[in-house]
Design brief:
This protein has helices spanning 2-46, 51-58, 65-72, 81-88, 91-115, 119-130, 141-150, 155-170, 194-200, 215-228, 310-318, 322-336, and strands spanning 139-140, 180-181, 238-241, 252-253, 263-264, 285-289, 305-308. Strands 3, 4, 5, 6 and 7 form a five-stranded mixed β-sheet that branches. The model has no long low-confidence stretch (mean pLDDT 92). The protein is globular and about 65 Å long. The protein is built from twelve helices and seven strands. It is of the alpha+beta class and 339 residues long. The structure holds calcium ion. Calcium ion binds at residues 203, 205, 207, 209-211, 217.
Length: 339
């Protein structure tokens, strides 16, 4: 009994000490953060942004500990490829996309023609990024970008993004009132980072600001981005294959960082069981990916496997994840069968 009491007391003392420590580190962080904000403002003004905008936008800037939490502790659990794709390309997602398409048909069709990007691809990207505008993110991205710039881990990258964003606000291209999005600073229907906005976003309806939470500007900006990075309309993205175990390991890509060993499809003939029934131009350049290999513990090395083409790599440009690109192209095909 006495021991239990002592243990209880010990635990509550321990919790008290931990919370005091956390509080004091938050205080320390806050005061250091305030110094960082002060210095950052000077740098921002030096880089040509007006003092008025710098002061206005950064008035309520806050250090957001939860953003550091997301940055440090991104879950290392990976769903296997089939589960990942299935979850993101299901029937209800297709239905939701079709409803949006019916509502905005004339504008989406116009953008498809003008930028030579399939409407199905645009719908697929919006569906996977934000579930058609339903998950736009609610974090004040001035604070999240500032927190990540203040933090040492990727300070340089996020400081540049924050400066770009302030410049866009200063030029009145982006309205500071709409700057709510993901913890990493992406926002809008297609989750653009500031640099992507600067390089590819457009004011399609010509009302002087780029509204990435509205259909016209967001669809045109996404289509412009895909066009500029070289997506080719009506050419393939990927095709599923059944591999022979005789295939040398070097041809199996399982990381999105650097796709290697690209060859013409026909070069891989002896390694692909279903080669003769593949409905694809055998002279196309392709690489083989096996996304579960090395990532899912105990996964079969040879399944699932896909031949991927140039277009697939364009989607990797958008987001460097093998599964993401597979899901986008799968959802695109699901739409194709319905529109
Ligand atoms: Ca506009």
């Amino acid at each position: 009994m006495l021991f239990k009491k002592m243990l209880k007391k010990l635990i509550s003392t321990f919790i008290l000490i931990i919370s005091l420590l956390l509080q004091s580190s938050a205080f320390a962080n806050n005061s250091e953060f305030n110094i960082w904000v002060k210095n950052f403002k000077i740098e921002a003004i030096k880089s040509g942004i007006s003092k008025k905008v710098v002061d206005e936008v950064l008035t309520d800037v806050k250090f957001l500990p939860k953003v550091i939490g997301y940055d440090r502790f991104q879950p290392e659990f990976y769903e296997d490829t089939y589960t990942y794709i299935k979850k993101r390309t299901n029937r209800s997602k297709v239905k939701k996309g079709l409803t949006l398409y019916k509502k905005e048909k004339s504008i989406i069709d116009k953008i498809e023609k003008e930028f030579l990007i399939e409407k199905e691809l645009l719908l697929a990207l919006m569906g996977i990024e934000t579930n058609f505008g339903n998950y736009l993110g609610k974090i004040d991205i001035i604070s999240s970008l500032s927190t990540l710039s203040f933090d040492k881990r990727r300070s340089e990258f996020f400081t540049k993004e924050l400066i770009i964003l302030l410049k866009l606000v200063d030029k009145k291209i982006i309205d500071k009132k709409i700057l709510f999005g993901s913890w990493a600073g992406a926002f809008g229907n297609f989750q653009f980072m500031p640099r992507t906005i600067q390089n590819y976003a457009i004011d399609y309806n010509k009302n002087t600001t780029i509204e990435l939470k509205k259909t016209e500007d967001s669809f045109a900006s996404a289509a412009n981005y895909l066009n500029k990075i070289g997506w080719k309309k009506n050419t393939p993205c990927f095709i599923k294959i059944n591999l022979n175990k005789s295939i040398p390991d070097k041809y199996l890509n399982s990381s999105a960082g650097n796709i290697k060993n690209k060859k013409k499809v026909k070069y891989f003939k002896k390694y692909i069981k279903n080669y003769n029934i593949l409905d694809i131009d055998k002279n196309l350049e392709a690489a083989i990916i096996t996304p579960d290999k090395d990532i899912i513990p105990g996964a079969n090395t040879y399944t699932p496997a896909y031949l991927i083409f140039d277009n697939y790599e364009k989607i990797l440009n958008w987001n460097r994840s093998l599964r993401f690109a597979l899901a986008v192209c799968t959802l695109k095909e699901n739409f194709k069968n319905e529109i």
